[in-house]
Amino acid sequence: MEVRDPDVELLRQVAQGDERAARRLVAARLPRVLAFATRVLGERSDAEDVAQEVFLRVWRHAGRWRAGTARFDTWLHTVTLNLCRDRIRRRRETLIAEPPDLPDPTPDAQARMEAAAGARSVATAIASLPERQKLAIILVHYQEMSNIEAATIMSVSVEALESLLSRGRRTLRHSLTGEERRHD
């Protein structure tokens, strides 16, 4: 039984220059592309630039897309990852600028501040992982990709991806719980 890619017809319309189809495709896929790029790059403005370039490439190359070689979503994430890597290489430094915390006047501000601090701790821990472990964690846990899809995007075997996930999770657990590694 053949798995049907729901984007094939939309891509065909985009390839024919249908601007409405392009807008529908962007509306459907932009949130995931932007979330993925933001997690990889750590900066929303850089992620927005990458997302814009991704959809320009979709517009220019929609006519060359061949159904059956890979799912469109997998290709879209691969293009996004490659553009993020290019941007990181150009950037050369890995500073993640965060806006200052402003006090919230609502009664539940303390709980939100604690949750934000926890989220920042997780984001910092993920950002400190080696690149391949970080990408594996982002693709599988945040982008909700299957191991097969994530391995395809990263150009590694499923076994290698699972090893990256295992090492990344272990490092995150140690980092977030403050556990010291035991040498038994």
UniProtKB/TrEMBL annotation:
A Pfam family matched in the record: Sigma70_r4_2
A Gene Ontology biological process term: DNA-templated transcription initiation
The keyword Transcription regulation belongs to this UniProt entry's keyword annotation: yes
Keywords from the UniProt entry: DNA-binding, DNA-directed RNA polymerase, Sigma factor, Transcription, Transcription regulation
Gene3D superfamilies given in the database record: 1.10.1740.10, Winged helix-like DNA-binding domain superfamily/Winged helix DNA-binding domain
Residue ranges occupied by any RNA polymerase sigma-70 region domain in the UniProt entry: 25-92
Gene Ontology MF annotations: DNA binding; sigma factor activity
All copies of domain RNA polymerase sigma factor 70 region 4 type, residue ranges: 121-172
Keyword NAD: no
Family: Belongs to the sigma-70 factor family. ECF subfamily.
PANTHER family cross-referenced by the UniProt entry: RNA POLYMERASE ECF-TYPE SIGMA FACTO (PTHR43133), RNA POLYMERASE SIGMA FACTOR HI_1459-RELATED (PTHR43133:SF8)
Protein name, entry field: RNA polymerase sigma factor
